[in-house]
Amino acid sequence: MTDPTPDALVRPLTVGGRVVVRHRLPDGSATDALGDLLADDGETLRIATRRGEVVVARADVLAAKPVPPPPARKGPPHTAVGTEDLERVMAEHWRPLERVDLGGWRLRASEGFTGRANSALALGDPGLPLREAVAAVVDFHTARGLQPLVAVAHPDGGLGEGTALVDLLAATGWTVRTPTVVLTAATDDLPGAAEVPLPAGLRVETSAEPDDAWLERYHYQGLPTVPPAGRRILVSADEQVFVRIVDTGTDGGTTVAIARGSLSPGWAGVTAVETLPSHRRRGLGRRVLAEVADWARSRGAASTYLQVQGDNAAARALYAGVGFTVHHAYHYRVAPQR
């Protein structure tokens, strides 16, 4: 039997993500490099570890895999994770069609489908003076026919006032869009499907990809249909599940509630939670959340996150009722018209 090629033992790795790489040393022994993946040129992996940068030849890799970010404070994983690390986690659940890194910033474009996939995620140092970095964002989005947009994460209870980036954007006319709250929970604490029974005449269906019935119920920002870019983004995570509740009493069965679950190392995400107005206040939102929670537990995800607009009181009450608490907030800044 021949040894497997190194790439056979390397799970897909994302530049900017946290990884552990077991690799062979010149004396024949092996060691692990744990840290942030800075670069992958196909021949070597460059990893920022606590002891400095390590460059590993792929030919020496014995195994490699992505891992959750380290805790930033004491507490369970869903509360101990730092804001920027959680933002990086969430970005891997909703990957854009195009991504260009500017230092620690991620410039994203996806034909205009969702702010998350068409904004600059401003994390850490962009490697340029702030004014030049913001100008680079404007050039990037303008070249693609998009409105320049910056996603800014900050503590809940404000808009990040007093930070250099927010103050610069505010002073130069960038306006606020979609203040959003990020909620987290320990996956094991979330109710399961057995605890949230369905009303009579309804059934649950799940699939690894969204079918036409699921897509017809998903109305992001009021869009009548999901464009091709959206369909690609919906299946862009490491793994995802699409949950729908069907009213069997209607002709052919009507989809009355949906949700999407997604996966990355240690984390599950919940997006696209919608219930048909005629079927609200029947516990269907709780049930689709429970279905995602059961799926996440089966995949070993210790923590779960979701995002909700800050002024959506009904949704926030639903999520708080099943155990989610506020981790941090973010909002978008929109460039002034030229």
Automatic annotation (TrEMBL):
Keywords: Acyltransferase, Transferase. GO terms for molecular function: acyltransferase activity. Its EC number is 2.3.1.-. It comes from the Bacteria. InterPro entries: Acyl_CoA_acyltransferase, GNAT_dom, Rv0428c-like_C, SH3_Rv0428c, YpeA/RimI_acetyltransf. Residues 202-338 form the N-acetyltransferase domain. Pfam families: Rv0428c_C (PF24553), SH3_Rv0428c (PF24551). It is an enzyme of class 2 (transferase). This is GNAT family N-acetyltransferase.
